[in-house]
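User: Could you check the structure of this?
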Amino acid sequence: MNLYQLRYFLELAEKRQYTKAARQLNITQPSLSYAISQLENELGVKLFEKDGRTISLTDCGRDLAGCASESLAILDKGIANLKRKAAGAGKIRLGFLRTLGTDYIPDLASRYLKQNPDKETTFRFHTGSTGALLESLNAGEYDIVFSSEPPESNDFHYTPVMKQDLVLIVPDGHPLADQYRIPLSETLAYPYIYFDQSAGLRYVTDLLFEQIGQKPEIVYETDEDQVIAGLVAHGFGIALVPYMELLLRLNVRILQISYPECQRDIYMVTSRRHELSPAAHHFREFVLTGLLDTPHS
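Assistant: Sure, the predicted structure tokens are below.
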């Protein structure tokens, strides 16, 4: 028994004439007769009986028609759903650093939906530190992550997609508060609130201090940039953090670092352990195409 036989059977049950059913199915009448005969032989029952100049279903035929119709409807619905997904429909699960949630990620998702109105795409948004995001990515909880550079590993595919400015923040009234731009070396006289080892920015800030051959005095560590900003605002130390609008609402002063250049690359990351869904793959290609279309200075 195969799907063609069941579809032929249901068409014949509806039309009640081999000629009409064969014409609708775009096959020859002998081909239809042979398919029905094979189906009856396999099942060991008669499915049709003559009814004057037409045919009608036997009791066994009516039983098969009920279950075949229901089964094929479920199958057709499933196939249609798979075709929708293959065309890019479905849910895309994004994980990203919290500082990207104000503008970068909403802008990406909004432009994608506007350019692909027929794909029936939805997004799920999650935030976290780089370490937690990458762990969840490998666990299959996210499709794509936007984070700091992953550690050297065979677990990830990753591509830089943007740069994010890092700034020095100090509390109001701090000796550096009247400065606008300062070299990193001149900040070393003051204790730092630092990103801990789970944060992608820990590696970035360590490299910045390595460039000037010195290390800061670290008094507190955490993985949350907003927590760091709050601690600075209350006088616990100074810190290097990504620029974020929250800083404008806190009692901190924002300083630019004149040397070395204080930026970090943001990467789009996928896991080698899990196959991307068509929807997630299409979104990833959208982001990569946008990188190629962006003019470089």
